[in-house]
Specification:
four-stranded antiparallel sheet; mainly beta; single chain
Length: 404
Amino acid sequence: MAGARVIGRHGLRSGFRTGLGGDGGHFGQLIAALIWVMFILPVQADPVLRPRPKFSVENHRGAVACVLFAPDGKVLASWEVIETKFWDVSSARELATVDAGYPLAFSPTGRSVAMTKKRDEKRELILVFDMPPKKAKASLKGHEGAITMLAFSPDGRMIASGSRDRTIRLWSLTTGEQRACLKHTGVIRDLVFSADGKLLASGEGASTTEEELDRKDYPIRLWNIATGKQKAIIRGHTGPVEKTFFSPDSKTLFTASSDKTVRAWDTATGRERWAAKVVALQSPIVAASSDGKVLAAARKDGSILLLATSTGKQLVELKGHKDLVTCLTFSSDGRILASASEDGTAILWETKTGKLKAVLQGHKDVAWIAISPDNKLIATCGFYDGALKLWDLTFGMWDEHQKR
């Protein structure tokens, strides 16, 4: 049946006619039709890309829990429980291994990196390195508990650190001194600078499960960076505030909480703009597009909701994962949402249409996913397999694929 090797839109049927002689009769036509429906049509109807990784590294000593591109896109950091490795993106060469880890933050230029390290059984300190990291140029000490969050100010001159000691501390990178200590009533769950660098927003949670069950008020605080004073305290959430995002113009603050709501607040007045109830919200797996137009929120059934930031209304529901979503991130142009899951896959979605564009497979589970600033590379890591994978996915190739 040499003719059956010709597979095209009409090639399979013509091949069966050749192989069976003449027109092949009704039996040949029936078999050809069945194969066409069962095997060929599904392939032609599936526009989803399933690429292979550009490279894969499995020499970490422990579970890899986080990957992060430097802002210039030239370096990739992978963090495991024991240490952090830094990789040259172009050559996949390991640049450094540092005995420090998450939370980790790159400066806006990518020339510096801040990481945390145990000081003793209870306390942690912050180490600041020039890139690639070799010897720390600053050691910031002051917190009396584990550090939960790190963030550089937009101008790169300051670091904000949040801790289980219920404080945020502002550090000058010029002097290495602590500029301010901002006190909270709970453990710091998240913090973020506004794009103009004038404000800092912080969300808090409970120190213990018992406290979380008893407590019904979890305020968000807005801080004036110039003065180090609290500008406003915003109330409304009844569960720990896990995620905070500013709009690009700094006029709106978005928050996500374990109370299963996502909310928007006016930063000038502290008033609530809208509140969206997300059934089975898997907090804190929430992300915001860089243009400030879309929020993505994961649900406990593996689905993802896209919300309009102007109204809080649902735009689309994304279904594809078969287990919990572990991480969400948008491309820098906002066109693509990437999701990672415990089902061992990472999925790339088209934000505008909600279409599933690509599935990345190869991990036992995917703990984290990151997109390079130029939107050409994607990094994934597996918690249980201890693997780091880099995928070469230029977004232009998706457009070409759709034209075929």
